[in-house]
Design brief:
UDP N-Acetylglucosamine Acyltransferase, domain 1, mainly beta, 3 helices, eleven-stranded mixed sheet, 226 residues
Length: 226
């Protein structure tokens, strides 16, 4: 399999029905190709949402009526908060965030230009920017996505010895379904983690991590066994 084949939408997300962004993701080959379209996408989706199920709050913010949002949370549009989702104390959603059903956006967590599939948990002091988190993926306390390189050049994704150009100056992390990231970890720009993989706490991750893997440290990635 070619390196680029490992990074496609279809390879990374086995549960596309678990996001309102599914038709948009289906229109691209690689997940990062949708990032610049997230603001407009949310506005288009928001205009189709039922007023019986969602309330519109301010400009281009739609919140499901059964979502629980703390009064101290700050939410800027465009944004959609899904059914049964919990947005906790002092969460900071600063725009272009599509948050799925049954998700948790926790205390002091910051979201910016991202898609969170259904069931995603970012519950404690997380930063998620210019990223896509697949179905039921989870960031441990303090885990963040770093979305800009220190030299401000475009982000490339390393798959083995190969580098895949993305054309994006800002690109955080792409997580497949059921990914678990340990507390205090940093997902460096252009990190892609395949579905059902785990990352040890306090890791500094970069490049492509295969599905069904355990990331213990740089250069120490093992395959999961039943």
């Amino acid at each position: 399999m070619k390196a680029t084949d490992l990074l496609t939408v279809s390879s990374l997300f086995g549960s596309p029905e678990h996001t309102l962004a599914a038709p948009y993701l289906a229109s691209v080959t690689y997940p990062w190709e949708i990032l610049s379209r997230i603001p407009g996408m949310i506005q288009e989706i928001g205009a189709t949402l039922s007023a019986e199920e969602y309330r519109r709050v301010g400009e281009d913010v739609w919140i499901a009526k059964d979502a629980v949002v703390a009064p101290t949370a700050s939410i800027s549009g465009p944004c959609i908060i899904g059914h049964g989702t919990e947005v906790r104390h002092c969460a900071f959603i600063r725009g272009a965030a599509l948050v799925g059903d049954g998700a948790v956006v926790g205390n002091s967590t910051e979201l910016k230009n991202c898609i969170l599939f259904d069931g995603v948990q970012v519950p404690h002091y997380n930063y998620v920017g210019d990223s896509i988190l697949g179905y039921k993926s989870h960031l441990g306390a303090g885990a963040i996505t770093s979305n800009v390189k220190s030299d401000k050049t475009n982000v490339a994704i390393r798959v083995g010895e190969e580098k895949i150009a993305t054309g994006c100056r800002k690109l955080g992390a792409i997580l497949g379904d059921f990914v678990e990231v340990g507390c205090g970890s940093v997902l460096n720009p252009g990190t892609v983690i395949g579905s059902h993989s785990n990352v040890y706490p306090l890791s500094a991750v970069r490049g492509y991590i295969p599905e069904n893997s355990i990331y213990k440290a740089s250069g120490c990635i093992v395959t999961k066994h039943d």
